[in-house]
TrEMBL record:
The lineage of its organism: Bacteria, Bacillati, Actinomycetota, Coriobacteriia, Coriobacteriales. Pfam families: AAA_16. Residues 39-205 form the AAA+ ATPase domain. It comes from the Bacteria. This is AAA family ATPase.
Length: 370
């Protein structure tokens, strides 16, 4: 077995090379370099599980840091999210303001809130001020030091009070002209629900980036280079078959590459049997990690709609899906829209839909037989 130093088939792990996302990354970096308040500084990444959202956020954090931005590295949308963001900005920005003492607000009965040293708040601010207040104060301090602040949020949740607080305070910072940017990532369904929140209408003006499937040619080129570096001999036709098997999924790319590496012997070419075994293993892992998790987040009727679609080898006619479900077409259309908004299916042509999540149809067919 060859020691795998390239593939990272785990959610959130950063691969050694960003395949097929260079244009998106370049666009994100250019957006961060635009003027404060620009629409390109508020970005929402949309993608299904395994599409590489988290990887993109971490790559963006690393590249933006080289540009001198203060980074609140990817923080999962959850309780105490704002507190973690404040802590990360304090840690990341200390190098730019360390040793300086902020001028306290003078006069009045507010107790002169400010910083005690670098980006550490005075005891009074820590005890008496909200997290939102602290975030604005940090952004002001970093901006005055000539640097921008980048806040990265992962796993955006629908109807999250923490996200609502963050977007509200971000809008305040933008209105104040502070040098701040916000990039968030989430599943299409969660993002759609968040954008429909009236409190968050500001985000409807944010730039939306849907992460497309990777091109098979890009994956094949990456495999050719990666296997060569690992000392794995594989016939070009088998390598292309492996690339096609990924169906353009970044996570599947990692699973297939790692499974091949585990079965390779650097001394001899990879056999067809070893490739078949690797692909089967990768598909099983993908179905368990992505397909099963995707279905578990859906309603029973959503899953029933998908099960009715899975009876077709290709695109499904909505009227046919409704007939299999034993419901009216109008009723089925409601769930068609829900699943399209969730990014799990997409229109194929008029009156037809198709799966967007690789191997989900096959997964449902097998589950029905078990």
């Amino acid at each position: 077995m060859v020691h795998d130093e390239i593939f990272s088939p785990s959610f959130g792990n950063r691969p050694s090379y960003l395949v097929g996302r260079q244009d998106i990354m370049t666009s994100l970096i250019e957006g961060l370099r635009s003027a404060p308040g620009s629409k390109d500084r508020a970005v929402v990444l949309l993608g299904q599980r395994g599409s590489g959202k988290t990887v993109l956020l971490w790559e963006l954090a690393e590249r933006a840091a080289k540009d001198g931005l203060v980074i609140a590295s990817p923080t999962i949308a959850s309780e105490a999210m704002l507190t973690r963001i404040v802590e990360k900005i304090q840690e990341s920005g200390a190098q730019y303001v360390e040793g300086t003492r902020s001028a306290s607000l003078s006069g009045g009965s507010l107790g002169a809130p400010g910083f005690s040293f670098g980006l550490e708040f005075t005891r009074e601010v820590e005890k008496a001020k909200s997290t939102q207040y602290k975030l604005v104060r940090l952004a002001r301090e970093v901006t005055s030091a000539g640097h921008g602040t980048l806040i990265l949020v992962d796993e955006l949740q629908a109807n999250s009070p923490e996200v609502r607080q963050l977007v509200t305070v971000y809008q305040e910072m933008v209105g104040e002209g502070l040098d701040v940017s916000l990039v968030m990532a989430g599943l299409p369904g969660a993002v759609a629900a968040t954008l429909n929140d009236r409190v968050l209408t500001f985000l409807n003006r944010a730039r939306k980036i849907k992460l497309p499937s990777l091109s098979i040619s890009d994956i094949d080129a990456f495999y050719a280079d990666a296997f060569a570096r690992l000392g794995i001999s594989i016939d070009a036709s088998l390598r292309r078959e492996a690339a096609q098997f990924t169906q353009g999924s970044p996570y599947m790319l990692q699973l297939v590459g790692h499974a091949i590496t585990q079965r390779a012997d650097g001394a001899i070419p990879l056999s067809e049997g070893a490739l078949r075994d690797a692909l089967t293993c990768a598909r099983e892992d993908f179905e368990n990690d992505v397909c099963s998790t995707t279905l578990s987040a859906l309603s029973d009727v959503d899953v029933e709609f998908l099960g009715a679609m899975a009876a077709d080898d290709g695109p499904s006619r909505v009227s046919g899906v409704a007939e299999r479900m034993g419901v009216t077409v109008d009723y089925a259309q409601k769930y068609r829209r829900r699943l399209i908004n969730a990014g799990i299916i997409k229109p194929a042509r008029r009156g037809y839909v198709r799966f967007t999540v690789p191997y989900l149809a096959n997964h449902m067919r097998r589950a029905r037989l078990d």
